[in-house]
Write a structure and sequence with these properties.
With about 140 residues, this protein is mainly α. It has a domain of about 90 residues: Glycoprotein, Type 4 Pilin (2-Layer Sandwich), CATH 3.30.700.10. About 35% of the residues lie in helices and about 5% in strands. Strands 1-2-3 form a three-stranded antiparallel beta sheet, with helices on one face. Strand 1 and strand 2 form a beta hairpin. The termini are far apart.
Length: about 140
């Protein structure tokens, strides 16, 4: 009777992945997660910027409603939330307190009179500072 012996690899060769291979895999996974994370977080900022533009337009409509009811512009945005003293025809509230802040939590600036228009509404963007670019840029009512 003959026995067949199979050639087996040595235990060192069967041990699995080397430390170098594990490090390479971890680095590749980290690179992929970084790329995906930046896309997802960038999407959140883009969404907030679009929401701020929409919020500014909506707030302008509420100011116009206030003006139609009272025959005057509000002296400050808080007049949209609670009736100011000495104003007749107020049928509000026209806005909720949370609507007076942009999506980043900064107060929306309101200026009466505006430059070349009766009033201005401005969100200072993600950084809350005047000027800036990209998501830090000012968003104005036009």
């Amino acid at each position: 009777m003959r026995r067949h012996y199979s050639l087996s690899r040595s235990p060192a060769r069967q041990a699995g992945m080397s430390l170098l291979e594990i490090i390479i895999v971890i680095v590749l996974i980290g690179a992929v997660l970084t790329l995906v994370g930046s896309r997802v977080l960038g999407g959140a900022d883009r969404g907030k910027a679009n929401l701020a533009k929409s919020q500014i337009q909506t707030l302008a409509g509420k100011i116009d409603s206030y003006q139609l009811d009272t025959n005057r512009l509000p002296s400050r945005l808080e007049d949209l939330v609670a009736a100011p003293s000495g104003v007749s025809g107020w049928l509000g509230p026209y806005a909720k307190p949370a609507e007076l802040n942009d999506p980043w939590g900064h107060p929306i600036e309101y200026r009466v009179p505006g430059e070349g228009q009766p009033y201005e509404l401005i969100s200072l963007g993600k950084d809350g500072q005047p000027g800036g670019d990209s998501y830090n840029a000012d968003i104005r009512y036009e």
